[in-house]
Write a structure and sequence with these properties.
By secondary structure, the chain is α+β, with helices and mostly antiparallel strands. The protein is built from 27 helices and 30 strands. The strands form five sheets. An eight-stranded mixed sheet has the order 8-14-13-12-9-10-11-15. Helix 11 packs parallel to helix 16 and helix 13 packs across helix 17. The radius of gyration is 31 Å and the shape is globular. The chain starts with a strand and ends with a helix.
Length: 920
């Protein structure tokens, strides 16, 4: 089927969500995204995890000079998905999202960039072509041809060329094997400008009516004039948004001069209309060109191939992609006031040139090539020697180090890779003859192994044998084998196609990966509801399941409660008590596993702290490779969840006697391992958990805390020490709990006194954790204890009084505030202390590891890694700065963003001025 859709809020994210909900649970093999501006942190939040969880290889390609993100905010590029840039003599401007499965395909071609605006808030135009089963569409064959030819027209790396050729071959195969298309429905075909201008591919007029809209219109009106001449419309309407559209009234008037029925319609300003539209009517039939091209000569009037290999001198030639559809409904709204074109006034074109100036230095990409790093330039200043720099800290200030140079006569070079992990930030720099410093946009070190499609049956490690819960609880030999097996797989990493293990810092395994590794039954034990709706895998019949309790619906629970405790005990598949002979060894092997989980989590935490201190960083690099050798790592989420869930089942089955409370120490050990995974600042930077897995982790933590609270208070003067310690560690996770994520863990006790938790227990615990004191009140109390007094104004803590050493006072204040218990002040802390007499005041903004200081007119930024604090660091002086001047002020930007503060308002507050004074 096909559809030309004028979207309201839909975007390619909608296609991913729809694929998730497919009844056949078909895997997604490829997810390809092309755009002009790209926002990788946004895509990593809403699209990449979804596509990876469905099994897809993810690839994102944008224009070389128009990324919206900062390198430090990008977590998975190069190690979780393929990212790259393309360069041509103009803007690389197509907008495409392609979802490709074994026998299904979704193609979205439109106007929305892969950013929060383009895929969320803007009013965009998309054409979606969907095929299922054995069906295809001619547009797929056209798209395959375009992808095949694209690398010859625009500059990109060789590995991107190979990837696009691979996608093209898959589309060609899908189309060639499909039966003939039913000719009914909207006529849709692909249009691009690799070889011919798009204008030349429009039909010649005359037409009865022509309607136009784009956010950018040639200031000269040249393209409007050319469209008028080609289509010879009897009636013309140009849509404009006074606030958003870039246009010049003089150019519009000149383009439509002498036309008797040319008008301009002012469209609603409720949100930006970013869709590009050329539509015309002949008789009663409408036709529409939608996609990426604006109403400019660079987009519609020139071909990429006019310049050799997409480069060269002369006017800009964008790379554009569009769809020409016939039999559509009119897409330009009829609402809004209309003005005759000769009466149009105003201009918004100044300063809104669309693509802007192409960057002078372009780094197309970097990849691991055996023991070397390969870097590829797309553009460089003539005669300038280019240096390649690498950051092991995500591009943070002060973390860049040169690794080599690219000779003047070459565009590629290789450098020793050493221990650098995929995903590391890399940039190119040079200095021009006039002394001007130039640097490229950051590229991310790409590893094909890390970015391979997920979940193939031969790409994940497995337990050495199949285990059922009944075996573990009834066979001591099976339990011992499992204990050794699960320790071997504790990091649970996905391997490459050749069976080589990829580093454990890759993207976390999906639930589907875990099912292939742990088996169906143990995956359901670990993930509960998350594993219930996965598609069935071909496998031998599983052993008869033995379980502690039946998974009850809400109605079942209410009916059982209404009938009384006797009815609850009679529910089908109620738990059976462990045989007496199995209880002792079950306690022993669970205690050993719990101690091992806790000790390795603590060792990993200690190693991370030591690495941060020795490397001078606030957090480890992309692979934790600051120190030689392997760094200890906590067990993976799936293996930790599995052991924790088995522990809960053993408790409910009566492995411990009623008066034997040694299970509390086992539970506390497991909580140490679970909370080590839940603390976001302890996870490797690239291992962001999928949202639903994080919710499962929080729920399992809450169930364990609930059990510790059965026999002692968890906080307050009379708190039981083990429970109180666990509560302090896990309160933040419990506050996030969604009780339904642990529905399978609300078990029935099979022996008298067996500790079990209920959903009501977890709900009460979550409310208790969320009852957090007022952070400002607690901050005042903490400052008072430190003999400081302050007011909180415009996001800044203004210390009362004057100080002989305002720097030390300011450092003491931010240390106290950042150290409030239970994460009461989790974001950046800003404070200012005034000097005594003629001493200059001191302002500090602090969010580990970055501290930005202003003394008088001097701005300086520092890095204060754990376990150091600003108070200790600045007590009698200052450490070596990471940056000064303009760079230090730039370092303040991310801190203000994280604190949700307006830079202008902060400036006004620090200078004691008002907005009226600034305007005046």
């Amino acid at each position: 089927m096909t559809a030309a859709v004028h979207t309201e809020f839909a975007s390619p994210v909608s296609l991913l969500r729809a694929w998730q909900e497919r009844p056949d649970k078909a895997p997604l093999r490829e997810f390809l995204v092309l755009g002009f501006t790209t926002d990788l942190p946004f895509l990593e939040a809403v699209a990449v995890p979804v596509a990876r969880a469905l099994g897809a290889r993810v690839a994102i390609l944008g224009d070389a000079g128009h990324a919206l993100h900062e390198a430090v905010d990008v977590r998975q590029a190069g190690r979780g998905y393929l990212h790259g840039v393309a360069s041509c003599h103009g803007a690389f401007h197509p907008k495409l999202a392609l979802l490709l499965g074994d026998d299904a395909c979704r193609v979205a071609i439109g106007s929305g960039n892969p950013t929060q605006s383009g895929w969320g808030t803007n009013d965009e135009l998309w054409t979606v072509v969907a095929t299922d089963g054995t069906a295809s569409h001619p547009l797929l064959a056209d798209l395959a041809d375009w992808l095949e030819e694209l690398p010859d027209a625009v500059a990109m790396t060789s590995w991107w060329e190979e990837h696009l050729h691979h996608i093209a071959s898959l589309l060609t195969e899908l189309h060639c094997e499909a039966p003939a298309l039913d000719p009914e429905g909207t006529d849709v075909r692909l249009v691009h400008n690799l070889h011919r201008p798009i204008l030349d591919q429009l039909p010649a007029g005359p037409v009865d009516e022509l309607r136009l809209y784009a956010p950018f219109v040639d200031p000269s009106g040249e393209m409007l004039r050319l469209l008028r001449e080609r289509l010879s419309p009897a009636d013309v309407t140009l849509g404009l948004q006074r606030r958003w559209t870039s246009y010049d009234a003089e150019g519009v008037r000149r383009a439509f001069a002498g036309h008797p029925a040319a008008r301009v319609r002012e469209l609603a300003e409720t949100r930006m209309r970013h869709g590009k539209l050329i539509e015309w009517r002949t008789g009663a039939r409408w036709h529409a060109l939608t996609g990426s091209p604006n109403l400019t000569r660079a987009a519609l009037g020139r071909a990429v191939g006019d310049a050799p290999s997409g480069t060269g001198n002369g006017p800009a030639r964008n790379c554009e992609l569009a769809v020409l559809a016939s039999g559509t409904d009119p897409l330009l709204p009829d609402e809004g006031p209309a003005t005759p074109a000769p009466e149009l006034t105003g201009s918004t074109a100044a300063g809104r040139g669309g693509a802007g100036t192409a960057p002078a230095l372009v780094l197309l990409g970097v990849r691991t090539d055996g023991p070397a790093l390969e870097a590829v330039l797309g553009r460089r200043p003539e005669g300038a020697e280019v240096s390649v720099e690498l950051s092991s800290d995500g591009g943070a200030p002060g973390s860049w180090a040169a690794i080599g140079r690219i000779p003047v006569d070459r565009h590629t070079a290789t450098f020793p890779l050493a221990s650098t992990a995929p995903g590391a930030a890399v940039r190119a720099t040079c200095r021009l003859d006039d002394g001007t410093y130039v640097e490229s946009a950051v590229a991310f070190l790409y590893s094909a192994d890390h970015c391979a499609p997920r979940g193939a049956a031969d790409t994940v490690p497995r337990l050495s044998g199949g285990y059922a819960v009944e075996d573990l609880f009834g066979d001591s030999m099976a339990a011992r084998r499992f204990e050794q097996d699960i320790a071997r797989l504790r990091e649970l990493v996905v391997t490459d196609a050749a069976g080589r293990p990829t580093p454990a810092v890759g993207v976390p395994p999906t639930v589907a990966d875990c099912r292939r590794t742990l088996g169906v039954e143990l995956t359901e034990v670990a993930f509960g509801p998350l594993a219930m709706d996965l598609p069935q895998l071909p496998q031998a019949p599983a052993a008869q399941r033995w379980q502690i309790s039946e998974y009850l619906s809400g109605d079942d629970e209410e009916e059982a409660a209404d009938a009384g405790s006797d009815t609850v005990a009679e529910v089908e598949d109620a738990p059976s008590a462990l045989p007496d002979g199995a209880r002792a060894y079950s306690r022993r092997w669970m205690s050993r596993l719990a101690r091992r989980l806790a000790s390795e989590a603590e060792a990993a935490d200690k190693a991370a702290t030591e690495a941060a201190g020795k490397s001078g960083k606030g957090r480890p690099g992309p692979a934790g490779d600051e120190l030689p050798g392997a760094r200890p790592r906590p067990w993976s989420l799936p293996t930790t969840l599995l052991v924790a869930a088995l522990h809960l089942q053993l408790l409910a089955a009566g492995a411990w006697d009623e008066n034997d409370y040694s299970w509390r120490a086992v539970t506390a050990d497991l909580l140490r391992a679970l909370t080590a995974l839940a603390e976001a600042d302890r996870r490797p930077t690239d291992e962001d958990l999928p949202e639903e897995q994080g919710e499962r982790l929080d729920a399992v933590i809450a169930v364990h805390i609930s059990l510790l609270g059965l026999h002692g208070e968890i906080e307050g003067p009379g708190a039981e020490p083990v429970a109180a310690t666990a509560w302090r560690m896990s309160r933040t996770a419990v506050a996030r709990v969604q009780p339904d994520r642990a529905a399978d863990l609300y078990l029935q006790a099979s022996r008298r006194g067996a500790p079990v938790a209920t959903k009501a227990d977890v709900e009460v615990l979550g409310k208790r954790a969320r009852a957090v004191p007022d952070p400002v009140v607690e901050a005042h109390r903490a400052l008072a204890v430190a003999h400081l007094s302050a007011t909180y104004e415009a996001g800044v803590w203004e210390l009362a009084g004057e100080f002989t050493n305002p720097q030390a006072a300011c450092a003491k204040a931010v240390t106290v505030l950042a150290g409030l218990p239970d994460g009461l002040w989790p974001g950046p802390v800003l404070a200012r202390a005034r000097g005594q007499g003629a001493r200059v005041p001191c302002f500090m903004a602090w969010h580990r590891p970055v501290l930005v200081r202003q003394r008088g007119t001097q701005w300086t930024s520092f890095r204060v890694p754990a376990p150091a604090t600003p108070s200790a660091t600045f007590h009698s002086g200052a450490p070596r700065p990471a940056a000064q001047g303009e760079q230090a002020r730039r370092d303040l930007g991310p801190l203000l963003t994280a604190a949700d503060l307006d830079p202008l308002q902060l400036f006004l507050h620090l200078t004691g001025r008002t907005s009226q004074q600034v305007v005046g």
